[in-house]
Structures are given as C-alpha cells and as structure tokens.
Amino acid sequence: MQTNMPDIADTAPALQTGKLDWVGMAEIELPFIFESRDLIPVTVNAKARAFVNLHKEDAKGIHMSRLYLALDVLSTEQQVNPQTLANTLNTFISSHENLSDKAQIEFKFELPLRRKSLLSGKVGWKSYPVTLTSTIEHNIISYELTVDVTYSSTCPCSAALARQLIQNAFNEKFNQDTLSQKDVHEWLGTTQGIVATPHSQRSIANVKVKLNRDINEFDVVNLINTLENELKTPVQAAVKREDEQEFARLNGQNLMFCEDAARKIKASLEASNHADYWLQINHYESLHAHDAVAIAVKGIENGYKA
User: Fold this and answer.
1) How far apart are CA 170 and CA 190, in angstroms?
2) CA nearest 116: which of 234, 205, 249?
3) Strands annotated E in the chain
4) Helix (H) and strand (E) counts for the chain?
5) Which residues have C-beta within 8 Å of that of residue 126, sequence separation ≥ 6?
6) Angle CA(223)–CA(139)–CA(85) in degrees, nearest 5?
7) Which segments within 37-122 are labelled E, that is strand?
8) Contacts of 9 (CB under 8 A, 6+ apart)
C-alpha cells in the first residue's frame, strides 16, 4: 500500500481564510448500545452528527475520517454513556490539534420501551424519539437530552359544549316532574342520551433539558415517566376494552388546552434539577386544519430561548 499519499487538508492553502464555527458530518448511520438508569443497555440505530470547529483561519479543512473512526470505536467497542461520550469528544479535539478546540456529537434515535397497559396488565412496545447532544468547549462538557412524548388531549371548550347538548337532550326527554332512576340510567347508556362528545386529538410534547455537567449516567426513562405521569393521557401500546374505557375516563378527567399541558410540564420541570429546559406542546387539532402550540423555557440568563 502506498504510504506517502497527499493530504490536501494539511498541505493545500485555503481558498479564503476565516474561522468556522462547526465543520463535520451529518446523517451518519450508527448503531450503538445506549446506557441509562433503570434501563437494560439497549442497541439503537441512530443518525449521528459529528463536528469540530475550525479556528485556524488558513487551514484548508478538518480530518473528517478521524471523526468517523472515533464514532466507530464508540459504536463497536463501547456503550454510550456520559463517560464514553466525553472520551470521544476529547478524541475529536486531540486528533485536530492546532485546528479545533470545540467538538459536538448528536445522536437521533428511537428508544423502545416496554409499557404496561392501564388496567389489563398487558404489555407492549412504544418507541420514543430521543436526541442526545454532547458538546465540549473550553474543556467543559455539556449534555442535552430531547424526548418526544405522545398523548391524547381533549378540548375543555368542546367538552362544555357537549355537556350543554346533553343537558338540552335530557330536558327534552324528561320534562315531567318525577323521574325514574332506571329510565335515566338506561337513557344515559344510549346514543340518544349522549348526543355529543368532545373532540380530542393526538398531541406531542417536545421537551429538551440541559443536564448537569457532573452526571455519571443518563436518566431518560425517568424523564419520560415524569412527563407521562404529569399529562395523565399518554398513548397506549397493548389495549383491552377495560384499558380503552380507563383511557376514556382519564381523558374526561384531564381536559387540556395546549396552555394547560404546557403549564403542567413546566411545573414538573421546575421541580427537577435540570440546568435548563425548553418545551413545545403541539395539539394536532381534530376541529381545525391548523395546530395549537405552546412554548415555554426556564428563562435563565444565556439559556434556551422561546
């Protein structure tokens, strides 16, 4: 094999000088083993982004293969956790001596979790979109975790309007002074009794948290559980009739505008110890052709912006 092959990134002059914030690769196909608290290490298929900055103004470019090979070691020889990500970021920097002093890795993947039904005890798979970003700058490493949680939202306004129609139908059906409990009970179980139902829709909470720098493990399962417990109506996997009935009850007891869902999640994140957070609530309306959206941030100096 020829050994003295040209390396244009080292020898060719830049067409124009200047510093670049990030240079690297995106959409890298990368399976890896993900580690998180309360989770058996699981293999996921990710799309990765790998970057370093280019602070040497006259350098032609970076050595992209070195980024890829470092990621390949992470993929095939290690498990992804805060320590291995920190080591890989340091490898990015050390392999670009005099060229770079910042590095970043981003993984986007679907995390499969076994989720139990509401009442029947059945268990099924649910996949949660996750983005894991790690950055090193001025020798300080930071981690950012983004998860999407899908749930059902039932409109409070629609529920009130439906109740009014049911009241009107009741008055039309039972206009006598005395009522039989049996007759009312039977009527409530018919389509003539429940003449209207509120509209609900599949909704998604996008939540991004900045993790504390001194963490030694990720805790994505707890974050997902916290969000689902706060929202009360996460979409289900395995469902029997008793689960569907319980889901209907939970929707009826947790009517939500997008503002309600955003405030619920904001309150739960405020109670956590995350360094920062950003959230966006998306209600994919069944009444309208547009979406209802609410956004909130922690509001710290130099933090996430709405």
Assistant:
1) 12
2) 234
3) 20-36, 39-54, 79-80, 102-116, 123-137, 140-154, 200-211, 276-283, 292-297
4) 8, 9
5) 112, 113, 115, 235, 237
6) 45
7) 39-54, 79-80, 102-116
8) 59, 60, 61, 62, 63
Structure-token pair, residue 128: 């949660």
Q: Answer for the pair 99, 55: CB distance below 8 angstroms, yes or no.
A: yes
Residues making up the chain, counted from first to last: 306
Can you tell me whether residue 218 is helix, strand or coil?
coil
8 A C-beta contact, residue 9 and residue 76 = no
What is the b/e burial string over 164-191, where b = at least 16 CB atoms within 10 angstroms of the residue's CB? eebeebbeeeeeeeeeeeeeeeebeeee
Maximal CA-CA distance, the chain = 102
pTM: 0.91
Q: Let me know: does 22 contact 53? Beta carbons within 8 Å.
A: yes
176: pLDDT strictly greater than 80 = no
Placement of tokens 């490898």 in the chain: 91
Question: Residue 10: pLDDT band by 50, 70, 90 thresholds?
Answer: low
* 270 three-state secondary structure: helix
Mean pLDDT of 231-243: 98
**Residue 88, number of CB atoms within 10 A of its CB:** 21
Residues pairing with 137 in the sheet:
102, 140
Rg of the chain over Cα atoms, rounded to whole angstroms, equals 26
